[in-house]
Specification:
Length: 260
């Protein structure tokens, strides 16, 4: 994608009202819970820890319970009848898998009950300028997911990209029909920044959501990302964030995010 065509595409994007969305999301603990993916992606996460994530997700009514692929069937069973979807990661955390591998992994996870797929795009291909292959990588996962009624979030790993690469990746992902652009895996140099969230939202407009993840540990962090343009938050500190709002803590975005 050329710089001129990218600029033209971004200029035509409908404007998203981040302030209004943030105000609504921060209006109550229930509203905040509804935009948080309750997340457990540690390599050493145990069965009992995964079940705890599921139970907390059901209790707090989080947007989803996000886990590693091995726990997909377990959580689908645990959350059956609760209305809380299971979210899983694909091609995680490097994104350097074959397209066929990502497609097959996604299909297998959907059969096990996953409803939200967070895939890592192929960062090496993007940096090599192979944008057609990047698009095919994303399209393969989007196609199989949407056919099964699931949504797709594409992880850009923004900390590894230049500004131009972030813009290009975001436009490719939007054109591929993703449901969310996502900042980070949480396993690289650093996680989400307000600047990157705002940049991704500038490309997405109202075409898709933006998920901020990585280093979001406090209510202040969550508010910062929402006001920057995030419509979904990925966090392992979800319960603490919602409890802070429940017990009267006042968000103060002037403090900024705590970092990863």
């Amino acid at each position: 994608m050329t710089t001129s065509s990218l600029s033209s595409a971004i200029e035509s994007v409908p404007v998203y009202d981040a302030a209004a969305f943030a105000a609504q999301a921060l209006s109550s603990p229930a509203a905040l819970s509804a935009v948080i993916d309750h997340t457990l992606l540690k390599a050493d996460a145990t069965r009992e820890q995964a079940l705890k994530i599921a139970r907390e997700a059901a209790e707090y009514r989080f947007a989803c319970a996000m886990v590693n692929p091995v726990w997909t069937g377990l959580l689908a069973s645990e959350l059956a009848g609760t209305g809380i979807p299971v979210g899983v990661v694909v091609g995680f955390p490097l994104g350097a898998n074959l397209v066929s591998t990502k497609r097959e992994e996604t299909a297998a996870l959907l059969r096990l009950g996953a409803k939200e797929i967070d895939m890592v795009l192929n960062i090496g291909l993007l940096k090599s300028g192979e944008t057609t292959r990047v698009a095919r990588d994303i399209e393969a996962v989007v196609e199989v997911s949407h056919d099964a009624g699931a949504i797709v979030k594409v992880i850009l790993e923004t900390c590894l990209l230049t500004t131009e690469e972030k813009l290009t990746a975001s436009e490719i992902a939007c054109a591929a029909g993703v449901d969310f652009l996502k900042t980070s895996t949480g396993f690289s140099v650093h996680g989400a920044t307000a600047e990157d969230v705002a940049l991704l939202r500038g490309v997405a407009g109202t075409r898709c959501g933006v998920k901020a993840s990585g280093g979001i540990r406090t209510l202040v962090d969550a508010e910062t990302m929402l006001r920057a343009g995030a419509s979904r938050i990925g966090a392992s500190a979800s319960v603490a964030i919602v409890e802070a709002l429940k017990h009267g803590a006042k968000p103060d975005s002037s403090q900024g995010a705590s970092g990863y």
